[in-house]
Amino acid sequence: MGDRRLGRGENTTLSAEVLTVAVTGPAVDVVAFVLRPDRTVRTDADFVFYNNPQSPSGKVTLTGPATLTVDLRRIPAEIERIAVGISIDPPATLGGARIDTTVTAGDTTIVAPAEGLTVERAAVLVEIYRRGGDWKLRSESAGWEAGFAALVREHGVAVDDEPAAVGSPASAPTTTSTVSSWISGCR
């Protein structure tokens, strides 16, 4: 069908049910939140990141360091949206970085460049959401200067207040309770 570019705040209807979402830019951590209508996760298992690379039922999967696959056919009715976010390690910020989110939906490619980010260390780049029986994509570029812990708290993921030591992704523990420890170390 072709290519489409979405500016910040713009949206488009998705014609395919299986999507590939790829983020290009500086070394950032790519994550996804599988969200209810109140924009929070049901459980920490709906927070997809390198230590939890697949949501329940496999509907959202981190397939590479900066790539997700989203199977809209498998999204339960109680889920209204999927937010795709990023974070960068402090003291770096997202300002000035060229970051593009490319969504491949069947034969359509949609590019949503990050816009307006300055001092933020974490951001939601795009949201995939239900509207009137259709799935749509919106370019967000909504950032959090306070960083990754603030981003995940905003979406209902439990985060410990005390920072914890964080190892490399390969050495990180694999239980849901480690989400809090990993995030706390990202401040």
Automatic annotation (TrEMBL):
<dbReference type="InterPro" id="IPR003325">
    <property type="entry name" value="TerD"/>
</dbReference>
<protein>
    <submittedName>
        <fullName>TerD family protein</fullName>
    </submittedName>
</protein>
<feature type="domain" description="TerD">
    <location>
        <begin position="26"/>
        <end position="154"/>
    </location>
</feature>
<feature type="compositionally biased region" description="Low complexity">
    <location>
        <begin position="164"/>
        <end position="181"/>
    </location>
</feature>
<dbReference type="Pfam" id="PF02342">
    <property type="entry name" value="TerD"/>
</dbReference>
<dbReference type="InterPro" id="IPR051324">
    <property type="entry name" value="Stress/Tellurium_Resist"/>
</dbReference>
<feature type="region of interest" description="Disordered">
    <location>
        <begin position="164"/>
        <end position="187"/>
    </location>
</feature>
<comment type="similarity">
    <text>Belongs to the CAPAB/TerDEXZ family.</text>
</comment>
